Batch of 2 targets.
Target 1
Amino acid sequence: VSRKWKTNYTSINLGNDVYIGGKEKTIIAGPCSIESEKQAESIAEHLSQQGIKIMRGGVFKPRSSPYAFRGLGIEGMKLFHNACKKRGIKIITEVMQASQIEELYPYIDIFQVGARNSQNYNLLDALGKSDKPVMIKRGISGSIDELLYSAEYVFSAGNEDIILCERGIRTFETSYRNTFDINAIQVLKDKTHLPVLADPSHGVGIRDYVPGIALAAIVSGADGVIYEVHPTPEKALSDGQQTLNFQESEALIQKIKVLERL
Ligand code: PEP
Ligand code: MN
């Protein structure tokens, strides 16, 4: 995945004129977890009104506590798919284990590998045999080179449609959830031809700081952002503290569009 090997940057074509990597910045938004038909529909409608073409949302959730909400599973995937399909929106969702690849496949456009699975080499090998794009998140304590090696697993198994995602790392700092590594954006863009997205929601973990990190990442050369949005973040079943409401989401989208024109 090195630029020594391929000098021009990779652009991933999702069909219907939706690309990740290239001239335009990609905006992906959606809830941490798909919670209900009503919630999925209202978020898909918000994205559609804002011209956002890719929705995120987890149905298999890797939670720190096994007693927390762990997602609606494949039934949630179906209602997520329905909400997006009728609006022409593409879908990214997390795949937690190789056995889920096949069941998720008909409903999704991009497989997300979460931070906790960033070095699950069996999962990466299996996704390397798929023909759908894979977004790999940086591990919670993962180095930049480890993230690149994770991408090599998918690439060398035959799948070259890979997106990298900086989502913050664990440091000694306790004033916020994770330390978004702004340096990683420029380092990754130097080292690899793959598209690089920023996840400011997990990257900082505090709603009010999410837009600032998103904009900083864009200015640093990220190919786009992936953030969490919910009609009522305070009632969200996961990650509400770092989730934007529709108004905040719209304001962020407008600011990203201003930056794009610079
Ligand atoms: C998520 O995207 O909701 C998620 C669980 O992220 P991460 O794997 O970065 O913690
Ligand atoms: Mn989340």
Target 2
Amino acid sequence: MSEILDGKAFAAEVRAKVAEQVARLKDAHGITPGLAVVLVGDDPASQVYVRSKGKMTKEVGMSSFEHRLAEDTSEADLLALVGQLNEDPEVHGILVQLPLPAHVDADAVINAIAPEKDVDGFHISNVGLLGTGQKAMVPCTPLGCLMMLRAHHGSLSGLDAVVIGRSNIVGKPMASLLLGESCTVTIAHSRTKDLPEVVRRADIVVAAVGRPQMVPGGWIKEGATVIDVGINRVPGEGDKTRLVGDVDFASAAERAGAITPVPGGVGPMTIACLLANTLTACCRASGLPEPE
Ligand code: NDP
């Protein structure tokens, strides 16, 4: 049976460390890091995410600024708000909750965020900086995955890693980060030939697909580390639903050396990393040493 990588406990440690550093910033420099979250429309999942981001931002002692806009908000109005937040000295991090309504060009909005305040790491400048191995704002979900991998393995150098999924928010930045750690990285996607064979070679498997339990244990190399990013809601008992990952946890746990559960794995790390990124952005903006 494999080691369960407890993202919930790890995230609590990260948040406690952030809270300690926020308190020190306030005491020593009178600075309070601030995170602005912009939500357009009333997508129920986005509402839940935004609420929990706001709650945790306050819990670590940061200022939380929530901007809830109507579904029919124009792109021009949204860009104006982003411009205002870019100029606001109390705001060190800006997050525009995705997805945005179809009438808004999401790329235009994300790229309007000042790159140094782009705590989601989606601005084209941060994508370029990460891709070229320079100091960037790193997207929160892959950053959380990397933190768990580093904590488990120490050095990742020379390990074979497979990232299943090539999205801009998870798969591609995850692959860049693993390459930065000197892994040999394969990025798999819906057109990959013989995915089971590709996965079988990997010492590290990161699954970010969005298909419930599509990776069976039989694909996993004995002793590999499995990071399951997927969050899929499936029918549960009676009329209830439950969350499962992209990996079939029960069978994969029989073979993996270590594995993240869903829920309680990657998910909690994402918000913890958002707070860590906001702290980093605040330190950079204030000319102070960055948190470790
Ligand atoms: P996307 O839908 O943007 O990307 C999915 C990727 O999976 C695509 O690259 C797609 O390939 C690939 N894919 C689809 N089907 C297959 C297949 N049969 N075999 C191999 N690859 C396949 O999803 P995201 O990256 O945004 O999210 C992935 C999952 O992670 C979702 O479940 C999401 O909910 C979850 N997630 C979790 C977060 C967290 O905090 N834990 C944060 C963000 C996402 P192609 O490009 O060829 O279409």
